């Protein structure tokens, strides 16, 4: 007979216990920064505020929806700045050209990111790149409005998704 180990609670990266502790301590630390007082009444109010903020945070953004790797996101900053510069020059060239080579329209971009933090962050970051902007969502795709649908917009967005997947850890799907 093989002995059965006692059930041990693990402290996984996406565990609700970890999210509760990290967010709760973070909100309480923010309270202390905003109101640097150690009066008992202020501390009690700070704890109550941190509990309420943590509850709202866990309700609106459950830990299973993913997380960000800030170091990897910062490492993408040079790429993002370069792509922004190249796209801005392209948009300016098209807008100021006498023949206005624009073919605006909408494209559907299927993504591997599930709905939640990772997809919303991807949409937010790609909205900062000139020439296309996310304008909606339809089932498994993000809908982008583009200045020129003749360009390989979806392929470029997939390349950005591959790069951002290093920094965005997608969680389980909602629903």
Account of the 3D structure:
The protein is an alpha+beta fold and 175 residues long. It folds into two domains: 16-60; 67-170, no CATH class. It contains six helices and five strands; from the N terminus they run ααβααβαββαβ. The protein has helices spanning 16-34, 40-60, 70-75, 77-96, 117-127, 153-164, and strands at 66-68, 105-110, 132-138, 141-146, 168-170. The strands form two sheets. It has a three-stranded antiparallel sheet with strand order 2-4-3, covered by helices on one side. Strand 3 (132-138) and strand 4 (141-146) form a beta hairpin. The radius of gyration is 22 Å and the shape is elongated. The two termini are 41 Å apart.
Write the layout of secondary structure elements.
Blueprint: H1 16-34, H2 40-60, E1 66-68, H3 70-75, H4 77-96, E2 105-110, H5 117-127, E3 132-138, E4 141-146, H6 153-164, E5 168-170
Antiparallel strand pairs: 1-5, 2-4, 3-4
For the largest sheet, list the strands in their spatial order. Answer: 2-4-3
Supply the number of helical segments: 6
Q: In percent, how much strand structure appears in the residues?
A: 5-15%
Q: What are the segments in which pLDDT stays under 50 over at least 5 consecutive residues? A: 1-13
Number of strands: 5
Structure class:
alpha+beta
Number of domains: 2
Cα gyration radius (Å): 22 Å
Helical percentage: 40-55%
Can you summarize the main beta sheet?
A: 3 strands, antiparallel
Q: What is the straight-line distance between the termini? A: 41 Å
Indicate the mean pLDDT: 80
Listing every helix as H and every strand as E from the N terminus to the C terminus, the arrangement reads: HHEHHEHEEHE
Sum up the overall morphology in one term: elongated
């Amino acid at each position: 007979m093989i002995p059965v180990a006692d059930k041990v609670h693990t402290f996984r990266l996406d565990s609700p216990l970890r999210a509760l502790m990290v967010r709760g301590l973070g909100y309480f630390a923010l309270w202390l920064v905003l109101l640097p007082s150690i009066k008992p009444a202020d501390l009690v109010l700070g704890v109550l505020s941190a509990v309420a903020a943590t509850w709202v945070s866990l309700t609106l953004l459950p830990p299973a929806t993913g997380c960000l790797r800030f170091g990897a996101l910062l490492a993408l900053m040079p790429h993002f700045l370069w792509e922004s510069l190249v796209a801005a020059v392209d948009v300016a060239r098209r807008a100021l050209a006498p023949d206005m080579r624009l073919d605006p329209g909408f494209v559907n971009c299927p993504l591997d990111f599930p709905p939640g933090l990772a997809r919303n962050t991807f949409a937010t970051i790609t909205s900062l790149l000139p020439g296309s902007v996310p304008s909606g969502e339809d089932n498994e795709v993000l809908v982008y409005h583009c200045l020129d649908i003749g360009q390989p917009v979806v392929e470029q967005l997939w390349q950005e998704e591959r790069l951002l997947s290093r920094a965005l850890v997608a969680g389980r799907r909602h629903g």
